[in-house]
Amino acid sequence: MGKVFDGIDEALGEWLTAQPVFFVATAPLAGDGPVNCSPKGLLGTFALLGPRTVAYLDLTGSGIETVAHLRENGRIVLMFCAFDGRPRIVRLHGTGRVLVAGDEGFEELVGRFSSHPGVRSVVVVELNRISDSCGYAVPRLGYLEDRDVLDLDATKKGPEKLAAYRADRNATSLDGLPGLPGLRSLPGPPVPAPPR
């Protein structure tokens, strides 16, 4: 049943953007570094930029593993599962890059997503493999609604406390790779990307 696609066509694009959650996996180059897998949700935070390019809105969270791994080596896979309807899993393998406020193209891209107070960056992925598999073992689950807790937390913190939180919790990954030190909340003045 598995298939490898040349690109994301209209039907596959509609299926991908209809999924309420997807998973992102990355790893550092070090063989003993922790592999990271993160769930991503909230409607309107994933976008198709072309048949072999996708992006998602990265919101402030307690860790910075995905961003740190991408800054080190760029390797990433996004996995989407059908929790209702016909069973299906789609994996998008590629090379990711992280754009923050002040980076070329950031403002244009951030406007393609739903609005959220805790925007940290935009992750853009150039795809080198697009494939699906059966998903027969994925359970049927019912989607109720997006949680609003992340947005409420970011709003409650406000720009200054978000910046302090990021400086404290998002400066380095679990294995000490550079994250995004000093990144401020949007909206606000553009912040240059940290040195690479």
Write down how many β-strands occur, each being a DSSP E stretch of 2 or more residues.
Answer: 8
CATH superfamily, please?
Electron Transport, Fmn-binding Protein, Chain A
Class from helix and strand fractions: alpha+beta
Radius of gyration: 17 Å
Describe this structure in words.
The chain has 196 residues and is an alpha+beta fold. Strands 1, 2, 3, 4, 5, 6, 7 and 8 form an 8-stranded antiparallel sheet that branches. The protein has one domain (3-169): Pnp Oxidase, Chain A. Helices cover 22% and strands 31% of the residues. It contains 4 helices and 8 strands, in the order βαββββαββαβα.
Summarize the structure in short.
This protein is of the alpha+beta class and about 200 residues long. It is built from 4 helices and 8 strands.
